[in-house]
Amino acid sequence: MRRYRQAKIVATLGPASESPGMIRSLFDAGADVFRLNFSHGSHDDHAARISIIRKLEIETGRPVGILTDLQGPKLRVGEFSEGAIELEKGMVLRLDLNTDPGTAHRVSLPHPEVFTALKKGTDFLIDDGKLRLKIIKASKDFAEAEVVVGGRISDHKGVNIPNAVLPISSLSPKDLDDLSFALDQGVDLIGLSFVQRPEDISEAQNIIDGRAGILSKLEKPSAIEHLDQIIVLSDAVMVARGDLGVELPPEDVPSLQKQIIRKCRQQGKPVVVATQMLESMNDSPTPTRAEASDVATAVYDGADAVMLSAETAAGHYPLEAVKMMDRIIHRVELDPEFWSLIESAHNDPEANTPDAITAAARQVAHTISSSAIITYTTSGSTTLRAARERPEVPILCLTERLSTARKLAVAWGVQCVIAEDVSNFSGMVGRACQIAKDFDFAVPSDSVVITAGVPFGTPGATNILRIAWIKP
Fold it and tell me: Which residues in the chain come in under a pLDDT of 50?
């Protein structure tokens, strides 16, 4: 069950990867978390995939994380009388609530709440930013926009309004239905789209009520303005570079990616880098050199996971894409420069006992060349602290909660084994050493570093560090 790398791989399932055989192959090739994209597919489709993943989990004896990615609200223009129009620079297009088919001069924008956020000077993007307009006049039920970058626009094209906070919940009626289904299915992480402010996460928390973790997708400029608060409230974060690249200048995205990764590491929250990482592998068995460098950069920065989207969901080479990502991560983590960069970005522990113990575990493991750091955890907080330290050795997480193990599948360097809780020191050490040996994390005469909390089973109470040696 052991992975011989630290960064994780998230693979999206879809028509190209929904059979039991392919899902098993993706797992064997290195996929740690499977993503279900609720922008596509029916509930029956997703239920079948979840069932296959849970059977795979039983077959392999390894906890597997499932990420449900909600679509989020989708803003779209209406229909045109002739199906499409051509917009030229300097033209003025009227946007209104009239549902009549659009013309060369006007089109329906069936989102009354949007008009309250529009004002003169607001950027208005259509079709993933291919067409760029600027609002020159706005009222409560219509707006006029001048075309800055023209092009062809057809029925129901998507709209982005980057420099405005829209009075819209991040959970549309479709999302609420999908969320209810996903929670009933027992998924592990909910990918929350269209996050604009911390209140969006609080709203989702009230509905989810601890039944799954929340992975906040950072795809709106307004979310970046509240970055620290959003990370605090989230269980994990995604750098959704595709949407960020539409609503922000492309040259801003790389530095934002580094900023988000750095802040997530400071707070000990798993961070996933996503979108177009090996895009050319939709149609090619090998990536471009630029794509390989892109994946490597995320790993060098210390991201917990890198994600494949269409490459595994709909591409012609899903298995090759996972294998390639696995190879890139391996190669980066063999580079001495990688560990120098990880060390240079290392954060001082906070002034509390759990952080002090976890920081000491990393140092001890390095000093005596231990084979692994073993964490006993109930909620996962002990193990996430260990992952934040970015040790050179794997983190073997022992937990009695399968739900905790599945959520930790996205965390850097963490590999989980389900184990009954312990009640005394000797039992703790003995079980940790035996599991480390059984799962190939250590061999006789190796040392391991163990962290736990007393009283045993108390979430967040890490206060023990123990060095142990593996017996024959």
Answer: none
